[in-house]
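Q: Convert this sequence to structure tokens.
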Amino acid sequence: MTSPAAPIWLYDGVCVLCSGGVRYTLRQERDHDIRFVAIQSNEGRALAQAHGIDPDEPDSFLFIENDRALAKSDGVLALTRHLNGPARLLLLGRALPKAWRDWLYDRVARNRYRLFGQKASCEMPDPATRHRFTLPDGP
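A:
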């Protein structure tokens, strides 16, 4: 019997909000099995393009689980199901219509660099979790 593939979080590695979300996830994760793929990596660019996201101007992250790629608020909710802690309150968002959730997601995503900042390069994970990350090659 084969085990299902680990879930993948395709994230914007230079976005301060996204990087903070990755750090939070590492602390609050239930099963410690999520793979983190920076959209700036070769694998990340390929995943983004395969799912209709421009890797140079990403408007969403993806959470890929059981061969399903979920974007925007659906991706947030899927990721949240893997977490402990206060982020689980986001699951209450399931009660809202998807159009409303995605509208809110789009507002934050569109303004994330202005509101939270942008880094020059992807943050390096600590050695204990490095094996779970796909990052861009060095300069």
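Residues 41 and 137 are 7 Å apart (CA to CA).
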